[in-house]
Amino acid sequence: MSLTDQLANLQSKPRHVRVKIMWLAAVLGSFLIAGLWLLSLNKTLTKTQPDDTKTVVQEINQLKQDLPSLWSSLGAGLRNVTGSLEQSFQDLISESPTPDAPKKLERLPVNY
User: Do 14 and 25 meet the contact criterion of CB atoms below 8 Å apart?
Assistant: First the structure.
């Protein structure tokens, strides 16, 4: 049977059966991913040497030095976004209709 035949067979099953199969596939997929992660973690931890620890400490210290500049960059970006939003809002307000234009009243279609 091909994959399309398998999918057609699955789609013809009742909803409760499809839901059980979905949960089974999700749990099996999660276990597979977690197992692969644990295997790779085990290999990573066994490869760790004292020199690697020094490198990690140096990287953490570099991150501590770079963090203030990252925060200031984030703040500048947020200020830029809020400034452009305020400008867009001001542009929308300035495009309001002139007082001489006839006003069209909008009403809900309510029958009395």
Answer: no
Residue keyed to tokens 């960059």 = 73
Phi and psi angles of residue 8, each rounded to the nearest 5 degrees, phi first: -65, -40
**On the CB side of 16, how many CA atoms lie within 13 Å of its CA?**
0
List, as one string, the DSSP characters of 79-102.
HHHHHHHHHHHHHHHHTPPPTTSP
Structure letter (DSSP) for residue 108: -
Q: Which of 40-44, 52-56, 81-85, 100-104 has the lowest mean pLDDT?
A: 100-104
Alpha carbon distance 62, 58 (integer Å): 6
Examine the domain organization and report whether 11 and 32 are in the same domain: yes
When divided into structural domains, the chain yields a total of 2
| End-to-end C-alpha distance for the chain, whole angstroms | 64
Predicted pLDDT at 24: 95
Range of the domain at 57: 52-80
Is 106 contained in some domain?
no
Residues 69 and 81: their CA atoms lie apart, in Å, by 18
